[in-house]
Amino acid sequence: MTFTLVHAGIALTTGVAAFVSVAFAIGYALIAIPVLSLLVGTKTAVTIGLFFNVFTGAQFWFHRRHISWPDAIAILPASLLATLAGLFFFFHVHEAWLSGLLAAYLIVFVVTHWLKGPPAHREQEVPRKPPILAPVIAGTLSGLFQGMLGIGGPPLATYLKTRHLPKHAFRATLMLCFFLSNLLRVGGSLDLFQGETFWGYVLPCIPLFIAGSVAGHSLPRLLSEKTFQYCVDAILLLSAALLIAKSAPDLLKLF
After folding, report:
1. Nearest to 110 by CA among 246, 245, 234, 226
2. Which of helix, strand or coil describes residue 118?
3. Domain boundaries, given as residue ranges, for the chain
4. How far apart are CA 150 and CA 34, in angstroms?
5. pLDDT tens track for 168-227
6. For the chain, how far is it from start to end, CA to CA, in angstroms?
7. Alpha-carbon distance 147 to 141, whole Å?
8. N or C end of the chain, less CB within 10 A?
9. Rounded to two decimals, what is the model's pTM?
10. What is the radius of gyration, based on Cα positions, of the chain?
């Protein structure tokens, strides 16, 4: 196999996305999928992202004592069922429309969130009873986007931000949800892990993925709660910009 600039771009993107996702529990798919889609197409990008997302999510085990179980239990049933539904539509959706819709949602959420002023995030991890409908809606949307595009983070991240969880609880809860939903996606997409996708794209990325994960592991301890939440907002806005860049050419062809 010849190592090209495309392979170098995939490996570098994977390392950066791993650093961000381990530090903030979101960002791997949000950053990697749009960039990788520009390099190798959406279907291959989703497959690469799926492989590494399982391992970033698996790190919930190291943070399991911080999980907000009331929120996780409220989210997961809808999220897992919707992930299976999303897998059914994986090859039958118009990615550009979904990517554009997701980008618009992220921009609206972050802007309205800032207009309301910075929330007082709790320092103590005292779980509050979650609302009834909000986690079900967030889990359903997350699962559908996860199954169809491999990007299920925004609905869960925005929901958990409204819960004002401490940074460690925010990370641990998201990691658990992503790990379980990605396990479902792996089971429904095993046929995609073959040939050039795995040996040509995934395998060469592993060293930079490990390096990025190790570098991102200790970062949250260095950040205050307020700085951590601003970083999450910045990741969401960056992701929106990448989604727009990815989907704009296809959307313009429709008009």
Report:
1. 234
2. coil
3. 5-253
4. 10
5. 999 999 999 988 888 877 765 555 556 667 667 777 888 999 999 888 888 998 999 889
6. 40
7. 10
8. C
9. 0.80
10. 17
